[in-house]
Amino acid sequence: MGNRFARLCLLLAAASLICATARAQDYPNRRITIVVPNTAGGGVDTVSRLVATALQAKWGQTVVVENRTGGNGNIGAQRVASAAPDGYTLLASAEVPLIMNQSLYSSLSYDPKAFVPVSIVSASPIFLVVHPSLPVKSVDELVAYAKAHPGEISYGTPGVGTPTHLVGVMLETKADIKMTQVPYKGSSQALSDFLGGHINMLFAFESSAGPYFGSDKMRLLAVSSPQRETRFPEVPAMSETLPGFSAQSVVALVAPPGTPPAIARKLSDAVAEAVKSPELSKRLVQMGSTPIGNTPEEAGAYLKEVGDSWGRAIRTAGIKVD
User: Fold this and answer.
1) Taken in order 231, 236, 238, 240, is the CA torsion positive or negative?
2) Which of 21, 128, 147, 251 has the largest CB neighbor count within 10 A?
3) CATH 3.40.630.10 fits 125-240, yes or no
């Protein structure tokens, strides 16, 4: 009896593997929906639409982007978390619903760790800029000024718990300084108030603040990526002043929990081919992003690593949204 049961289990496992492989070979044979938990026109949305266009051209199947906003990204994430694990509904997102919300909220209607990683599509460094009225020209001088004038430096963010807010928290923690966060309803409002002199510091992406780099509207002090950016070799990395400082924002593509690895791999291979093509790679660089297109295993490892880092920053600051 025991041997027959063991053989039956093996046969069922083999049949399941064969079915999963067959599904992957036949994938995709209908429309794919990429859910973006952000508004249309933003960085994540733009990258997602570029990828969707490339996948549609490769496979000859319709690939649509669906903007499902609200709840700090939780509504869109829940939409994908409850979708069928067949590769036809995907989530393209920055770190907030995938990583940060599990530390920001006491409970969620989905498990961020249960998503099946597909690929990190691209990564964008965060730049530290100050208003010309602030008498500092380096991170060292900024830290010294903040120590001498606690709370006087005010930096704008698109909201509590966003990447640019948490980079500010990391700076306060590592440099042992006190600044004042001013939350806005979006990055464009924060940038507008910065340019108007209402706040004197900003953590910003090239996609939004880039047109003002090198102008008399702002002073570019540093970049948050681990090393200097090749496009801005004269701009120091923050780690040169604060060792170990590293932060960037990514666009990650994930699938619903339970999605077969073979489908995740097929998607990952197609994304890598797309983002590393000369045309799409050039578009991403023009947006201030670095094309990545890595494997599901690499994407999963990255999300865990940065999840630990962002989680520590949130716990250190004692930030809670609810």
Assistant:
1) positive
2) 251
3) no
For residue 305, how many other CB atoms are within 10 A of its CB? 10
The pLDDT of residue 207 is 85
Residue 128 reports pLDDT greater than 70: yes
Domain residue spans of the chain: 32-123+249-317, 125-240
Q: Is the peptide bond between 97 and the residue preceding it cis, with omega within 30 degrees of 0?
A: no
Length of the chain counted residue by residue: 322
Q: To the nearest 10°, the Cα dihedral for 192, 45, 279, 120?
A: 110
CATH of domain 32-123+249-317: 3.40.190.150
Q: Exposed, middle or buried: residue 108 (CB in 10 Å: 0-12, 13-18, 19+)?
A: middle
pLDDT at 313 exceeding the cut of 70 = yes
Q: How far apart are CA 122 and CA 288, in angstroms?
A: 10
The token duo for 317 is 């600051």
Question: Which residue stretches of 27-162 are H helix?
Answer: 43-59, 74-81, 95, 101-104, 139-148
Closest CA to 54 of 281, 289, 271: 271
Total-model pTM:
0.84
Strands, E assignment, the chain: 32-36, 63-67, 89-93, 116-125, 127-130, 154-157, 180-183, 201-204, 219-223, 248-255, 290-291
